[in-house]
Amino acid sequence: MNFSVDNYTRWKEDLIKNIRYNDYRDDLDWNGGEFPEIPIKNVDLRHSNHGYTITQSECNLNNIRDYFFKIRDQCKCILEIGVDCNATATERTSTRIFLDNKLDETIYIGLDLNDKSYLNDESKNIFTFQADSSDTESVMNFIQSKGISEIDFIFIDGWHSINQVMKDWEYTKYLSDFGIVGFHDTASHPGPHSFINALDKTKWNIVENPCSNNQNDWGVGFAWRCKKKIQIISHRGNLNGPNPSRENSPEYIDEAIAAGFDVEIDVRCEDHKFYLGHDGPQYEIPMTWLWKRKDKLWIHCKDLRSLDVLSSSPVDFHYFWHDIDRYTLTSKGIGWVLVGQFPFKKSIVVLPESIHYYDKYEGNYDRILETMGICTDKPLFYKNEL
């Protein structure tokens, strides 16, 4: 297999620039002055009780533990690239953090160029694999042989060159939606430092080095995917739940728009006049009121006359009509899905809270996150939840 960096795809998708120098420096593990933009650090870490040299500070270890515990209870697989453990109970290493704190059912995969099989314990789902981490195909075949298709925590601490970290990033192809990637040596080693600083922040949440105030420290960093942004539409102007006395009123709708949300409104036309109101004409509005807010409104036509006028208008209103249809399409070709019906990608899920969506679908919002958005009486809640 050709292990050239150019044959790996994930870094090309997730970095804002190519971080390579295209010379010998791309393969250096250490910064000896070849990288003027990267700090040179002389670190001397010692075990607090035994005095021998260690590679990770208390700050590093505490942060590794803290970030791992964010997902520990749902973590099914850990991949550690570079096993830092000699099977000694008193060790202070990332490997020891994972082995001592993971659930027994969580599968730990330790990947290293050297034989670390003395750590293997099938009864606790601890496995090691001796291989070059560049060989992602062989490594993933091994991981998948354990019944695993996704990795939940990846810790990159192998060879710290730019080229190698770019290759190791390829494993994020298998990272779960809630997964976290950790990097050791982000303070001064060329690969981790350059890579984490060039990650696209529109795609990844990034903590470059929470130990940056510690001079005697190699640094540690973390990254996890940004949540997919979906459209959250206020139902009739509601922000924190149903409010029948104010729903569809012009002032109430404007408050929801001011809070940053699109709004689904109920519109009807009688005697050549437009009204807002779900069960009948409640609030008379001029056509200009709709026109000025057209980019924020999802107009539910409640009668044939309003549908006729809006569909004939030269103004690009966004409108739809439905009765008891399980699915309908808006004027812009977006699906409007009746409460409780199975959504599709280019659709809006209506009132997910009314069917206790989170509980119904086993404690996750996966189906919602695959759609264009939701229309809800609780947009402020879902803004934080999603």
Task: Provide an overview of this structure.
This protein is α/β, with parallel strands linked by helices. It has 2 domains: 5-225, Vaccinia Virus protein VP39 (Rossmann fold), CATH 3.40.50; 231-385. It is built from 12 helices and 17 strands. It has helices at 10-14, 58-71, 94-101, 136-144, 162-168, 190-197, 250-258, 287-292, 304-312, 357-360, 366-369, 379-385, and strands at residues 77-81, 107-112, 126-130, 151-156, 175-184, 204-207, 220-225, 231-235, 262-270, 273-276, 283-285, 297-301, 319-320, 327-329, 335-337, 347-350, 373-376. The strands form 2 sheets. Strands 8, 9, 10, 11, 12, 13, 14, 15, 16 and 17 form a 10-stranded mixed sheet that branches. It has a 7-stranded mixed sheet with strand order 3-2-1-4-5-7-6, sandwiched between helices. Helix 5 (162-168) links the parallel strand 4 (151-156) and strand 5. Helix 2 (58-71) packs parallel to helix 3 and helix 5 (162-168) packs across helix 6. The longest helix is centred in the N-terminal third of the chain and has 14 residues, at 58-71.
Brief summary of the model shown:
By secondary structure, the protein is α/β, with parallel strands linked by helices. The protein has helices at 10-14, 58-71, 94-101, 136-144, 162-168, 190-197, 250-258, 287-292, 304-312, 357-360, 366-369, 379-385; strands spanning 77-81, 107-112, 126-130, 151-156, 175-184, 204-207, 220-225, 231-235, 262-270, 273-276, 283-285, 297-301, 319-320, 327-329, 335-337, 347-350, 373-376.
